[in-house]
Amino acid sequence: MTAVNKDPFVFSNRKDGKPLIFKGLVQAGATQAIKRGEICTWDETTGYFIPVTAVADCRYWLAMAAEEQKASGRYDLTAARYMDFYALHPEDHFEMPLAAARSLALGDPFTLTASDSQKLTYGAGAPAVAIAVSDGHYPQEEDATIRSQSYAVVSFNPAYTWWGQRMSQIMSPGRKVIAVAATATLKQSDMYNSLILISGTTVVTLPAVMPGMDALFINADGADQSIDPNAADKIRLLGALLDDGDKLSNSTIGHTVQLLTESADGFCAIALDGTWTDGGA
Fold first, then answer.
1. Is the model more confident about 17 or about 44?
2. Distance (Å, rounded) from C-alpha 29 to C-alpha 128?
3. Rounded alpha-carbon distances, angstroms, from residue 65 to 42, 132, 250
4. 3-state secondary structure at position 97
5. Contact status, residue 199 vs residue 179, Cβ threshold 8 Å
6. Environment class of residue 108 by beta-carbon count within 10 Å: exposed (0-12), middle (13-18) or buried (19+)?
7. Mean pLDDT score of the chain, rounded to an integer?
8. What is the dihedral of CA 59, 2, 79, 66, to 10 degrees?
9. What angle do CA 91, 94, 96 make, to 5 degrees?
10. What is the pTM of this model?
11. In this structure, what are the phi and psi dihedrals at residue 12, rounded to the nearest 5 degrees?
């Protein structure tokens, strides 16, 4: 897919109303042409920002070209240089074309699109690089359905952007702590950057998996404890995918496990300390 010059920036909630822009290093135009509006990533191997061309994972420092880098012509560029990029601050909004039109709802998650650096793809349950933030297309009539849209106004997820990565290095905010001392069902908001301290003989029920969830669980007192996913979700433990709804169980003080969103099917258990087993449904 050939990129075209298009500036998708539409709005910023920042005090000055302007998008956050920085200077990013790029290769010579003869080596790497870049169109205005292309989603780019920092290439650690070459040390330059380049257009996104593969979406096999989400190991990105994303930014967006705020100007064009020509490959040839009157303004031919023959040396590496610094050019303007949108830092993708979470308060900056962009109107992005979608790989497939859909009845767009607030909060819809989107991933990158293979072979197209200027489109987003709807991805329920996948790690979201962008989130739909506009309700301007919602119908005003009572009981009317949301109209199908081929474009979405989105805010980019700081977990995958140049701005977010730089801020995380500077601020390192740490995790919020949630204490669970009785059988309980966690809220969706509990599953983002959280430390869950579990006490007593307890079953902790997880909410349905959503993009970007990341929670660390600790057995705080050595009682028999279980982490129970939603009935339709799975947990990948030591490479094996447990059955829908199967629990993770532990009975030793200080043992920990971190759960990350893997896909729409459920979580991946990583950073295991101690013995966590399949506790069954």
1. 17
2. 31
3. 12, 20, 48
4. strand
5. yes
6. buried
7. 87
8. -70
9. 150
10. 0.67
11. -135, 135
Q: Which two tokens stand for residue 103?
A: 């009845």
Q: H or E stretch including 167?
A: helix 162-171
Does the pLDDT at position 135 exceed 90?
no
- Reported confidence tier of residue 238, pLDDT bands at 50, 70, 90: confident
Domain boundary assignment for the chain: 1-170, 174-280
C-alpha span between 83 and 243 (Å, rounded): 50
> In this structure, are residues 24 and 166 in contact, taking their beta carbons and an 8 Å threshold?
no
Q: Which CATH number fits domain 174-280: 3.40.640, 3.40.30, 3.30.300, 2.60.120?
A: 2.60.120
Whether residue 149 contacts residue 157, with contact meaning beta carbons closer than 8 Å, is answered with no
Residue 56 has pLDDT above 50, yes or no: no
Residue 199's identity, in one-letter code, is: S
203/198 Cα distance (integer angstroms): 9
> By mean pLDDT, which of 20-29, 43-52, 69-78, 104-113 is the weakest?
69-78
Q: What is the mean pLDDT of residues 135-162?
A: 84
Q: What element of type H or E holds 153?
A: strand 148-156
Q: Which two tokens stand for residue 265?
A: 């099917």
User: Over the stretch 66-106, which tens digit does the pLDDT of each residue have?
Assistant: 999 988 765 556 788 999 999 999 999 999 999 999 998 88
Rounded to a whole number of angstroms, the distance between the first and last alpha carbons of the chain is 46
Separation of CA 220 from chain center: 30
Q: For residue 196, count CB atoms less than 10 angstroms from its CB and return exposed for 0-12, middle for 13-18, buried for 19 or more.
A: buried
Mean pLDDT of 152-172: 81
Q: And the tokens for 254?
A: 């200080």
